[in-house]
Amino acid sequence: MRILVVEDDRDLNRQLVEALTEAGYVVDKAFDGEEGHFLGDTEPYDAAVLDIGLPQMDGLTVLEKWRRDNRSMPVLLLTARDRWSDKVAGIDAGADDYVAKPFHIEEVLARLRALIRRAAGHASSEITCGPLRLDTKTSKATVNGTPLKLTSHEFRLLSYLMHHMDEVVSRTELVEHLYDQDFDRDSNTIEVFVGRLRKKMGMDLIETIRGMGYRIKSQDSKS
Ligand code: CA
């Protein structure tokens, strides 16, 4: 999962990027509205954290422009404390949720998890597929209750496929959502990661759809 952070406060920006990276996301950052708008407009993100008070272009304008151009990723707004008018304006501009400053980073993480899950159609914090279980809260995956030891890349790949269960996900899409903008992207590595995941899971839940990509199919819960 790839997240965009737009926040001009350098300290806060760094804290957010660190916490999100720690939680297993790939993160791109911007420090003003123009740069943030550009990134959100041109790169595919699974969610964005957007401050309202930004230099060059304010957060609400950024959001309105994204929505006008049909950029539909979930957006979590950072608002000044007690500015209820900001919150109303933010929701009207197309925000999915907001957190008022000062906030605990855990709250931002929890709200983002929920937004990403809901955008993918999952209401609960655990996503399951037969014996495979993904806990979005702890960023852990288990097979038949046994924890999988995954690298951050492997986890992201598995998480992306599970959030998009039953969809065929192309390698290009995976590369775009697994690496940040500066990474030297090579879609061949995806194949390697899939191979390792299959081996670690000890089963073949990830289907290869020839010439198209990969898919994890939902399974009936154990009956
Ligand atoms: Ca600000």
TrEMBL record:
InterPro entries: CheY-like_superfamily, OmpR/PhoB-type_DNA-bd, Sig_transdc_resp-reg_C-effctor, Sig_transdc_resp-reg_receiver, WalR-like, WH-like_DNA-bd_sf. Residues 2-116 form the Response regulatory domain. Gene3D superfamilies: 3.40.50.2300, 6.10.250.690, Winged helix-like DNA-binding domain superfamily/Winged helix DNA-binding domain (1.10.10.10). Residues 124-218 form the OmpR/PhoB-type domain. Pfam families: Response_reg, Trans_reg_C. The modification 4-aspartylphosphate is found at D51. PROSITE patterns: OMPR_PHOB (PS51755), RESPONSE_REGULATORY (PS50110). GO terms for biological process: regulation of DNA-templated transcription. One of its GO terms (cellular component) is cytosol. Residues 124-218 bind DNA. One of its GO terms (molecular function) is transcription cis-regulatory region binding. PANTHER family: REGULATOR OF RPOS, RESPONSE REGULATOR PROTEIN CARR. This is Response regulator transcription factor. It comes from Phyllobacterium pellucidum. The lineage of its organism: Bacteria, Pseudomonadati, Pseudomonadota, Alphaproteobacteria, Hyphomicrobiales.
